Predict the 3D structure of the following.
Amino acid sequence: MSEILEIILLVVSVLLIVLILLQSNKASDAGQIITGGNDRLFGNVKERGMELFITRLTAFLGTTFFIISLVLFLM
Protein backbone atom coordinates (compact mmCIF):
# COMPACT_ATOMS: atom_id res chain seq x y z
CA MET A 1 0.00 0.00 0.00
CA SER A 2 2.81 2.37 0.92
CA GLU A 3 4.60 1.82 -2.39
CA ILE A 4 1.48 2.67 -4.37
CA LEU A 5 0.98 5.89 -2.41
CA GLU A 6 4.61 6.85 -3.01
CA ILE A 7 4.21 6.38 -6.76
CA ILE A 8 1.00 8.42 -6.75
CA LEU A 9 2.75 11.12 -4.72
CA LEU A 10 5.57 11.23 -7.27
CA VAL A 11 3.12 11.59 -10.17
CA VAL A 12 1.14 14.30 -8.36
CA SER A 13 4.39 16.14 -7.59
CA VAL A 14 5.49 16.19 -11.22
CA LEU A 15 2.04 17.30 -12.38
CA LEU A 16 2.01 20.08 -9.78
CA ILE A 17 5.38 21.37 -10.98
CA VAL A 18 4.24 21.37 -14.61
CA LEU A 19 0.94 23.12 -13.82
CA ILE A 20 2.62 25.79 -11.70
CA LEU A 21 5.05 26.52 -14.52
CA LEU A 22 2.13 26.79 -16.97
CA GLN A 23 0.29 29.41 -14.94
CA SER A 24 0.52 33.03 -15.95
CA ASN A 25 2.85 35.25 -13.98
CA LYS A 26 0.58 37.28 -11.70
CA ALA A 27 3.52 38.92 -9.92
CA SER A 28 4.25 41.07 -12.95
CA ASP A 29 0.77 42.59 -12.62
CA ALA A 30 1.73 43.93 -9.20
CA GLY A 31 4.33 46.19 -10.83
CA GLN A 32 1.54 48.26 -12.33
CA ILE A 33 0.87 49.79 -8.91
CA ILE A 34 4.01 51.85 -9.24
CA THR A 35 3.53 52.68 -12.91
CA GLY A 36 -0.08 53.74 -12.46
CA GLY A 37 -2.13 50.87 -13.86
CA ASN A 38 -5.06 51.66 -11.56
CA ASP A 39 -7.72 50.69 -14.06
CA ARG A 40 -6.36 47.15 -14.16
CA LEU A 41 -5.62 47.08 -10.42
CA PHE A 42 -9.20 47.76 -9.35
CA GLY A 43 -10.85 46.15 -12.37
CA ASN A 44 -12.77 42.94 -12.07
CA VAL A 45 -10.44 40.55 -13.91
CA LYS A 46 -11.64 36.95 -13.84
CA GLU A 47 -9.88 33.86 -14.98
CA ARG A 48 -11.56 32.12 -17.87
CA GLY A 49 -11.23 28.98 -19.91
CA MET A 50 -7.96 27.14 -19.69
CA GLU A 51 -6.49 29.48 -17.06
CA LEU A 52 -9.40 28.76 -14.70
CA PHE A 53 -9.07 25.02 -15.33
CA ILE A 54 -5.32 25.07 -14.59
CA THR A 55 -5.89 27.06 -11.39
CA ARG A 56 -8.54 24.64 -10.12
CA LEU A 57 -6.50 21.59 -11.10
CA THR A 58 -3.48 23.03 -9.28
CA ALA A 59 -5.56 23.53 -6.12
CA PHE A 60 -6.90 19.98 -6.36
CA LEU A 61 -3.46 18.46 -6.90
CA GLY A 62 -2.01 20.55 -4.08
CA THR A 63 -4.67 19.27 -1.70
CA THR A 64 -4.11 15.71 -2.92
CA PHE A 65 -0.36 16.12 -2.40
CA PHE A 66 -0.91 17.33 1.16
CA ILE A 67 -3.29 14.50 2.06
CA ILE A 68 -1.09 11.75 0.59
CA SER A 69 1.99 13.19 2.32
CA LEU A 70 0.14 13.28 5.62
CA VAL A 71 -1.07 9.69 5.22
CA LEU A 72 2.44 8.50 4.37
CA PHE A 73 3.84 10.36 7.37
CA LEU A 74 1.33 8.79 9.75
CA MET A 75 1.89 5.24 8.45
Q: What stands out?
A: Residues 2-74 form one domain. The mean pLDDT is 82. Helices lie at 2-22, 27-30, 32-35, 38-41, 49-74. The chain has one domain: 2-74.
